[in-house]
Amino acid sequence: MTTQYRKALHLIDAAHAEDPKTITPPNTTTPIPYELHYANKMTKYLTLHTPTASETLSLAIRAQHLKRWEIPRSSYPMTKIGYHSWRSNLQKRQAELAEAICLEAGYEAEEAGRVAALVRKEGLKSDEETQVLEDVACLVFLDDQFEEFERGYEEEKVVGILRKTWGKMSDRGRELALGIDMSERARGLVLKALEG
Fold first, then answer.
1. For residue 143, what are the CA distances in angstroms to 59, 74, 182?
2. Which InterPro entries match (predicted)?
């Protein structure tokens, strides 16, 4: 672990710590900023998925939701196009912030640019590290957000979203997904999605 990596990680987590939304993770009593919790989950699944991940991939994973709360979903039209515009602009902004942090931490422009490219999920079908990032994001969704998410939608829509999520993942990602501890209802929805 290089000095640059430690500094970049510290700066990324300091940014996450500014998130006003908090969460009290299971088996704890102390609330933490939500985006710091999310980043911890991303790192946990990266370690399970690819324990020998490069520094650039590790930083991109950690920076995935960098200052996301500053641009709420409600700031865009509540339409499908609005959602995609919001996601696209968030991704671009988060990549720029991560790149700036990496440069500040002492990385060369090429390495900082690589972190930004990963945050933007460039080359998803051809870049192995981008696929790892996609797998990890899907795993965190299934582990940390899916049960709350699925309560807000019709079963058919949830099953469709699960099928799309499954389609984005590699075999390794799917293997880890099947090992996630879920409620009986959530697991039933996953299995229903996989049947189709």
1. 21, 25, 7
2. DUF4202
